[in-house]
Every structure is written in structure tokens, then in C-alpha cells.
Amino acid sequence: MDPMAGKADPGAPASVFRLPLSWFDPGRDLVSVRVRADSAGKIGMYWYYLLQNGVAIFGTMMNVAPGGALAFAILDATGMGREELMRIMRSAPVGDVEVEVIDAGVKGFASTGGHLLEAGSGRSIVMSASGLAGLFRGMRELMGDDAGAAFLYYAGFVTGREWGKFLVDHVGDPHAAARVFVEVLKSQGLATSAEILEGEDRYRIEARDLIECEVLSDYASRKGGRMRTSHWFRGIVAGVISAVRGGEWDVEEVECVNDGSDKCAFEIRRKQGTADAPAR
């Protein structure tokens, strides 16, 4: 079953995974639902029934536990009307399914309510590109390009250092921890693809659709283009590698999508005379 069937965006990349936490689409009639059942199969049957009856599902998420399953979705009732949508939802021939409609009362907006989100074995949050653009661009506009870039680098560095300590504690081997870091940054949406190449006291990371440089594309254009824009992620890389390998590391963005490349690439080299021991 394709959960995006009905009114899927034909221009959306195949790698896009919509989290139905909240959604803005002015002019559309969006509805959020919370569904509980004693099995994931019943919830799948419920979604399938809605799709078969012309209901568009913007995105779904589900947790499964021994006692049953809990799922959320954002539905589109545009052109159908709320009453017809409710009729279809009530008529679903799936037994023992509890459905709750969550109505924020704002046209063109839907939210699935309050959650504690976990990712990477701990509590997490989701931040939109507009919020991140405020951080990445706003610090430059507030402090100037050089000071803003320095702030972002060190904010990334301390973030990456804690991330790296977590990876070392849970993975153990520093080289495996570096590889896990790249896999996590992909799974958590920082980039759609990334590769890490490891050498003697050096690494190279190549990433596509890196969130920092993507949201700074307009800023780079206003500045005349042809600039390398990653400082926050560059700091994260320095912090992670410093934590998992020990010592101090220089990180340089050598390719950037805002400088004409098709990817962002980073060269990471150990500073001379620094120890090779994971940070604690």
C-alpha cells in the first residue's frame, strides 16, 4: 500500500518521508487523526479503506507494542468536505479500531497533538527548515558574516562533541563510531546521502542535500553566490571526530552546492601533536 496515494505530489523526490506531526497547506482542509488498534494490520486495513474511498493521506507514522498499535495521520478533506470524510471514517469495515480526530481549528493547518519523540535512543525534536534558516542566516545577519560563522561553528562543535561521546559509549570502536555518525545524519534528515572515507589521520565526508547549505542557498545568492556556506555542520564534524578519535581536528568544506558543486565535501585532518584517544 502506498500511503501517499490519492493526491501525492508527483514532483516530490522518492526519498522524502513526511512526518505527520504538523502540516501547513493554506486553502486545503486538513484533518489529523489518532488511531489505536490491537494490531498494526488493522490500522493498515483502515488506511487502505480510506485510500480506496478517495481520501488523501499526507503522511502516517505508527508505533507497535505488545499491547497493540498507535498511529497518526494527516488527511486531506479538500473537495470532499468534513462530513463526507467523517462518514467514510465511520463506515470503515475494520473492527476494534479507535479513531480520534484532532482539530486545531485553523484552516490549512493540522497537528497531531503533543508527543515525546525519540530518535537515536533518546529524546529528540523536529525543527523545520524555516527555523533552521533563522539560526544559520540570522546569526550572520545579527553578528556579521565572520562572527556569525564562528558562532555557528562552535555551536556545532559542542553539539558534535556530545554526539561523538554518545557514539563511543554505545558503539565502542572509534572507527565504527565515525561510520555510524554518517548513517545517523542521513537517517535523521541532515543529508539524503553521505559517505565517509578514512585514511591515516584524515577523513573525507561527502554529503548531498545537506540541510545547512540548502537553507542558505538564498542567502548565498544575495551575497553574490559562489560561497561555501557550511559552518554549523563543519563544527559538528569536528566535534564528533574529536570525541571519537581524540585530539584536535581541522575541518574544511572543500566543495559546496552554493559554490557550484553538486555536493558538499569536507576534508578532516588531525592537528599535529594531538593525542589519539576518545574524549570522555
TrEMBL record:
Highest taxon, organism lineage: Archaea
Keywords per UniProt: Membrane, Transmembrane, Transmembrane helix
InterPro entries hit by this protein: NO_sig/Golgi_transp_ligand-bd, V4R
One family name in Pfam for this protein: V4R
Transmembrane portions of the chain: 55-77
Stretches assigned to the 4-vinyl reductase 4VR domain: 202-270
Protein name per Swiss-Prot or TrEMBL: 4-vinyl reductase 4VR domain-containing protein
